[in-house]
Amino acid sequence: MLALSETPMPTPTMTVDPESVTPGFVGFAAIVVVLIAVILLIWDMNRRIRRVRYREEVRDELDAEEAARAADEATETDADLPIVREGDDDPADDGPRPA
Q1: How many DSSP H helices and E strands does the chain contain?
Q2: pTM of the predicted model as reported, rounded to 2 decimal places
Q3: Region Disordered: start and end of each range (predicted)?
Q4: Alpha-carbon gap, residue 70 to 58, rounded angstroms
């Protein structure tokens, strides 16, 4: 037991210069450039997503208007529709036929 307490503990010593392992100004500048690029990319992505969302909303509104117009045309009364007789090729021709 006495042998364990007598062994000296090694103390760490500085073998590398702390100034040579720090990022310094170059590292700071690189991080700032990356940060600016990320912010610009996020800004551009949000703009593009917003534009797609607006186009989708406009497309939905146009589809709804077209569906409403089709529903209005489908509910027209029979009096508004032209009369088609058997053998009539052109329903717009309501005049007398030549003999």
Answers
A1: 2, 0
A2: 0.46
A3: 58-99
A4: 18
**Structural domain spans, the chain:** 40-74
| Residue 85 in tokens | 């007789």
Phi/psi for 66 (5° steps) reads -65, -40
CA–CA separation, 12 and 87 (whole Å): 110
Q: What is the dihedral of CA 15, 17, 20, 25, to 10 degrees?
A: 140
Q: How many residues does the chain have?
A: 99
Is the predicted pLDDT of residue 88 greater than 80, yes or no? no
Helix (H, G, I), strand (E, B) or coil at 5: helix
pLDDT at 33 over 90: yes
Place of tokens 């062994």: 7
